[in-house]
Amino acid sequence: MEGRVEELLGRLVDATERNAVANEKIVSLATDERDTGESILGPPFCPHCGTFNPNVRSEGGDGEMAEFALVAQCRNCGNILYGVPQGWLVYKTKEEAAQQIAGKGGTDDIHNG
Predict the structure, then answer these.
(1) Is residue 74 located within the same domain as residue 104?
(2) Strand order in the sheet with 56-58
(3) Does one domain contain both 30 and 46?
């Protein structure tokens, strides 16, 4: 029985070490992608306080759509954040856009600048 416990503990240690190495590789890859400026899609969060999908306030602007970025104030921590779109899904109506957002697990509340 004691030998079996030692075997299981050894396997557990090996698996934990492999998991740690894999996690380090994932972090390294993500850091490399971020630092090279490649497209990284991810959930909305405040880069200051880490709040997931924060409530924000934004003022409108004008210019070419392809060069737009969201400049908003996080309602949780009050800091300014900058959101850069990785692509656009464009709809004819507010309702179509709301359906897309609701389908992604968001709310169907579309805010107008």
Answers:
(1) yes
(2) 56-58, 70-74, 80-83
(3) no
